[in-house]
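Exercise 7. Predict the structure of Extracellular solute-binding protein from marine sediment metagenome.
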Amino acid sequence: MYKRCLIKLMRIGITVIMVSLLISIVSIVGATAGEEKVYELKANIIGPGPIGVKKAENIELAAERLNQMLESMDSPVRVKVSVEFSALKWDPFADKFYMDFKAGKAPDIFTLRNMVELAKRGFIVSLDDHVKSFWDSNYYDFYPNLWESAKWNDKIWGIPHDISPTGVWYRKDVLRKLGYTDDEILKMLPLDGRTTLDKLAELAKEAVDAGLVEYGILHRPSKGSGFYAVLLAFGAEAYNIKTDNLVLNKPAMLKMYEWHAKMVKGGVIPPESPPWKTIHSTFVEGKTFCTLASHVGTPAEWKEKYGLTDEALENDLDFIPFPPAVEGVKPVSTERLRNYRKSYNIFRI
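Solution. The predicted structure, encoded as tokens:
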């Protein structure tokens, strides 16, 4: 079920590879036999979490495949990519990029979130011509909304390469202990998220009152896209795309705060969110019914650090988009978002 859910949610969210200096493959392929040349590129990749290193490995793999293609075409040209994988947090990683850029040591390929600011300030180049040239071979099967997230001012500024949409992870085994069958669980919490946040809270309270879990619902202890997903669940849009302005929806915000206060009073959510280690460990151990603090790729971290098994992932856990908290709102997920000014991108099912 997790795999089906993953496929459904792959259309939501994005991390964008930013390219500040692009070597045209057209010029490489067109080299003559006497022009022996190795194009050297530098890539700085960030990827918090154990699965993040794949972002760096994919760059290396791409270089290998490109060189194989060039060899098959009898081209004397090769590409050499030096990839540096960083475990820094996003802000320090961005600071390092700006310092490297100022010193003339900026990478050719890098991962950052604030695409619009980078484009406005001239740190990156448009990739429209590149994408058009290689559309049929590389990019034709990307989800359309991923390209929309990589656009600003009607131009493409990055290549979508990673998707980790936020959502709700919950424990089916806890619901089974409450007497629900798998069919009943699927009807109450369908994979498309078309239920309500109140229904999720109702089930969480049942689990707490029955003494099956220590925590009903846990949310992030720090800023992150999961918080914005909750805002959207209450209809609290925070950005007006037409005016390029941030928006404060006071009525929707009030409903959100009132809901959280009600959950704390009812013992569903703790007054203060515990640290990350507790959030992850208690969920894996079955001491938390559901977490609003994770995304579709978090099980990789749970497996590596907290002992989650493939069997438990497949049979005892499930994942849905954030269900709506008010009428007129659809199930929602977000991808690493603070606000649109930083070009963090929102996608809805």
